Amino acid sequence: MKRxxxxxxxxxxxxxxxxxxAQVSTGxxxxxxxxxxxxxxxxxxxxxxxxxxxxxxxPDGANQWTEAKYAKKLQNMAQVIAEMRKDNGAWHAVxxxxxxxxxxxxxxxxxxPAIAAANYQIVHYDGPDRRGVDVGLLYKPEILKVxxxxxxxxxxTPSRLDWSAWTQEEMDAFRTRDVLMVRGTIDSEMFAFFVxxxxxxxxxxxxxxxxxxxxIIHQRAMQLQEEFPGIxxxxxxxxxxxxxxxxxxxxxxxxxxxxxxVDDDDEFFDPFLSMLKAGYSSLYYRGAGNIFDIxxxxxxxxxxxxxxxxxxxxxxxxxxxxxxxxxxxxxxTGQYKGTPFRTFSNGAFVGGYSDHYPTYIVIKK
Length: 365
Description:
The protein has one domain (2-364): 4-Layer Sandwich (Deoxyribonuclease I, Chain A). Helix content is 24%, strand content 25%. It has helices spanning 2-17, 67-88, 103-110, 168-173, 209-227, 246-251, 271-277, 299-302; strands at residues 32-43, 92-100, 121-124, 134-139, 144-152, 179-186, 189-197, 232-238, 268-269, 283-285, 288-290, 293-298, 310-311, 322-323, 344-345, 348-349, 359-364. A hairpin with a 2-residue loop joins strand 6 (179-186) and strand 7 (189-197).
């Protein structure tokens, strides 16, 4: 049965790579930009950050995380970003990232020779996650003019969810990644980008944590729409949930398969909902495919006014999102054939890339 599941996974990866190139034009007659997300799977440096449980990623830690391994990890992440540039004909204008330890690792990443020419700038805040992993945003300053940013903490109120099973002490002690919001203009149009890594799949009381995280994002997005009428909003991240889960459908209000079905200003269009149903995956867990790596847009970007930026179909002229998969990013043999080629496997350093594939959308005017 396991062999059958991995064979199916391999077939789906082949499907994902077909007809999915998105050449991006930035000429004067219409402008197109790539906006994406990538979970970098534990991009840690080799130094201890005070107050953080990062000990396994130290030279004398469980992973024996040396400068050579860190350098290989940086090189691999840069290679993927460069390959996306090659495939699309342009660098990402905006790239959200997760599982990064601090600003230092992002500075090292954007300085890698393979991507240094992109001249990526960084938005990052140190968050409260006990392991020390944060989210961040890389952007091209000649495209996105950043006006404001904020780090939005996880709070339990105000919420539609019932937290009666939690004590006040448990709520006070809970820590997870903050949500990053970056607001700015692209070609004079107002945009907001949310980057998130929603809470992991915990047992018992963890069931409502991801819906609450999604609710926090939706609440802030609606505030921005009131403050800046017509603002175009992109929500991206590792949701630790599929597009069909209630965190996405109910609390981010992104439950429509088709772009034409997005009717209300409080709705989001999730391109990866229909892709999940069609068999695409951005990661695998115990042989099952999922899409946790999601990039979604609000109505203003899904159904844009003529002559303004709008999300575009980029895979088979049908799907509005892409999961970027190349053979070098995928296990080609062995027990995990057809799944992402990650940094560690069964506790051993294997020099791979990430346990997630990057995802992206294209906007055009």
